[in-house]
Amino acid sequence: MTEPQTQTQSPAPPARHTVLDDAQGILFGVAMCAFGLVILTSAGFVTGQTAGLAVLIAYATGLSFGWVFFAINLPFYALALRRMGMRFTLRTFAAVAGLSALSAVLPQYVGFDRLHPAAAAVLFGLVTGAGLLALFRHGASLGGVGIVALYLQDKTGFRAGWSQLIFDVFVFGAALFVLDPVAVGWSLLGAAILNLVIAVNHRRDRYIAT
């Protein structure tokens, strides 16, 4: 006698995020990134990508980081709309606007009497990495260079990671004219930890709910 065959059921499709899921995820991501920026600027450090450029301009001019960051991102929304679609663009606009506003308000409520450079670099990388992961997993970003890098990769085949690395080299090179070299060195540590958090945890084959 042959044994009865058991039918294997295909796995259920992943549950999609609800509107409330996405709202709290983006709010969490913005809050964590804003807190990371408080740590970064309290230590006098800089970071990479568009946020790093905005921090440098704020250091050099005395302008508010929030206004500079918001303005720098404006030209990128048309490209985001073309490359990523309306939903991603609107969520990214909301995240950028939220970070711009919260980064101006949060320092009035959070400060540091003692902040060792090593602790600042590590905490910035971990906190901001967690915030960016939340934004990515809920269909948003902080705009800027990442959008251009993805666009160039689609159009030319030039890897997005290399485009972002080239931009970061420019940002940290410019930082040497504004900050002490030791501060730039600690900043590089923070950026490395941030990128490591993203590289290890942001994988679509492990996280598939959208």
TrEMBL record:
Q: Report how it sits in the membrane.
A: Multi-pass membrane protein
Keyword DNA damage applies = no
Q: Write out the annotated subcellular location.
A: Cell membrane
What is the protein name stated in its UniProt record? YitT family protein
Q: Which PANTHER family match?
A: UPF0750 MEMBRANE PROTEIN YITT, UPF0750 MEMBRANE PROTEIN YITT-RELATED
Q: Which InterPro entries does the record cross-reference, listed alphabetically?
A: UPF0750_membrane, YitT
Main location per the UniProt record: membrane
Keyword Repeat attached: no
Keyword field? Cell membrane, Membrane, Transmembrane, Transmembrane helix
Task: Kindly list the residue ranges recorded as spanning the membrane.
Answer: 26-47, 53-76, 88-106, 118-136, 157-177, 183-200
Supply the source organism for this entry: Halodurantibacterium flavum
